[in-house]
Amino acid sequence: MSTEPLRCAGALIADRDGRIFFQRRSPQRRLFPNCWDIVGGHLEPGEDIDEALRREVTEETGWVLSHVLGQVGEYTYVGDDGLARIEYDFLVRVDGDLDHPTLEAGKHTEYRWLAEHEVTVLDENRDVNDGLIRRIAEEGFAVLRSIGR
C-alpha cells in the first residue's frame, strides 16, 4: 500500500455578491458525515489538478468552471479513515444557474451560500478541534477580498 498522501482538488465557488458555496455531506458518507464542505474530491488516475477541479465542479453542482480566481491554499490532513491527504483549493467562478445547483445524489443533502460573517456554521457536526473547513473558508474569503470580489 502506498504511503503517499491522496491528492485532492477543492473549489470555493464565489458568486458576484461575495458569498461562497458550501454543501452538506450526507449522513451516510464515510468521511465527515453530515458536515459542511466545499466542492471537490480525489484526483483520478492520470488526472491533473485542473482536470479534477473541473470534473468535480460539474459532478457535484451541475455547473461549469469558468475561471480560477486564485489559489486559496494547500492543506495536508488525515481523514477519519486514517489516510493522509493533500488538498489543493482554489477560489473559482462558475457558469450556470447559481440558484439551482444539481447536488450529487446520495453525497450531498443541502447547500448554502455563505457570507464571510457566517463561517462559524461550518463547524456544525465537526470535531471541535478540527475547524479545517472553516479555516479554508476564511482563507477563501481573504483571497476574494484581495481581488476585490
Describe this structure in words.
- The structure is a single chain.
- By secondary structure, this protein is an alpha+beta fold.
- The chain has one domain (6-146): Nucleoside Triphosphate Pyrophosphohydrolase, CATH 3.90.79.10.
- The protein has two helices and seven strands.
- The chain has helices at residues 49-61, 132-146; strands at residues 6-13, 20-25, 36-37, 39-42, 64-78, 84-95, 108-114.
- Strands 4-1-6-5 form a four-stranded mixed β-sheet, sandwiched between helices. A three-stranded antiparallel β-sheet has the order 3-2-7.
- Strand 5 and strand 6 (84-95) form a beta hairpin.
- The longest helix is centred in the last third of the chain and has 15 residues, at 132-146.
- The chain is globular and about 40 Å long.
- The N and C termini lie far apart (43 Å).
Question: Layout of SSEs?
Answer:
Elements (H helix, E strand, L loop, with lengths): L5 E8 L6 E6 L10 E2 L1 E4 L6 H13 L2 E15 L5 E12 L12 E7 L17 H15 L3
Parallel strand pairs: 1-6
Antiparallel strand pairs: 1-4, 2-3, 2-7, 5-6
